Amino acid sequence: MNVSSDKIGLNDNQEIDILNLKTREELIGPLRKKEGIYQAYHMNKSKWVSVNLNEMKSVDSIKELIDESYELTS
């Protein structure tokens, strides 16, 4: 989805593409230390993260997060 970058805590108002993904609560902290992963936009912040697709360097890392999110929500 396209959102203003300030919605995920960045200091500007550029429009960016994000993907909201559910993850295990114990992984939220470590994931948010990685480049491109932020506090969830308009979701439960203890279970969801927002991935800035413009900052992600590896498609494989996004695939892993999508797979986990799918398993947690299905």
Layout of SSEs?
Elements: E1 2-4, E2 15-22, H1 28-32, E3 37-39, E4 48-52, H2 59-73
Antiparallel strand pairs: 1-2, 2-4, 3-4
Number of strands: 4
Name the beta content range.
Answer: 25-35%
Structural class: alpha+beta
Number of helices: 2
H/E topology pattern: EEHEEH
Task: Look at the structure and give the mean pLDDT.
Answer: 92
CATH class designation: Alpha Beta
Q: Whole-number radius of gyration?
A: 12 Å
Low-confidence stretches: none
| Largest beta-sheet details | 4 strands, antiparallel
Indicate the overall shape: globular
CATH architecture: Alpha-Beta Complex
Task: Label this structure with key terms.
27% helix, 74 residues, 4-stranded antiparallel sheet, alpha+beta, Aspartate Aminotransferase, domain 1, YjbR
